[in-house]
Amino acid sequence: MLTPFHLAIQVRDLEEAREFYGNRLGLPQGRSSDHWIDYNLFGHQLVVHLNPNIGRDGQVNQHANHVDGHGVPVPHFGVVLTMDDWEVFAEKLRKLGTQFVIEPYIRFKGQPGEQATLFFLDPSGNALEFKAFADIESQLFAV
């Protein structure tokens, strides 16, 4: 059994983060203070921490690495979902009018590690990736 991970990220504004993670993405909120908010990210603990000094333009710094013909933003985080859950989540994001960094598609098609993936940014510029495999156990770490 996998145990939940804990990830803490910086955001420029807590109310903006609450609107994005809580209302837009629909993540259940846990504990909070004037400086941070806990969220349930598909069974994992995501904590957004206020940093009003994020970058000159109010965005966290990003870099992109070439993967399967796309500029993948680094750093990024997300969750590996079942294929059914990924399809439902991708459709929800489309209906919300999400501006994708990388549109939902199948990466490494026909190769070891074939996966569904999508990328988008939160308002502070944190990159999120959600992916899925037809068979998580055999494909997640396939070489």
Automatic annotation (TrEMBL):
Domain of life: Bacteria
Residue ranges annotated for the VOC domain, each copy included: 3-133
Entry-linked InterPro entries: Glyas_Bleomycin-R_OHBP_Dase, Glyas_Fos-R_dOase_dom, VOC_core
Protein name according to UniProt: Glyoxalase family protein
Pfam families associated with the record: Glyoxalase (PF00903)
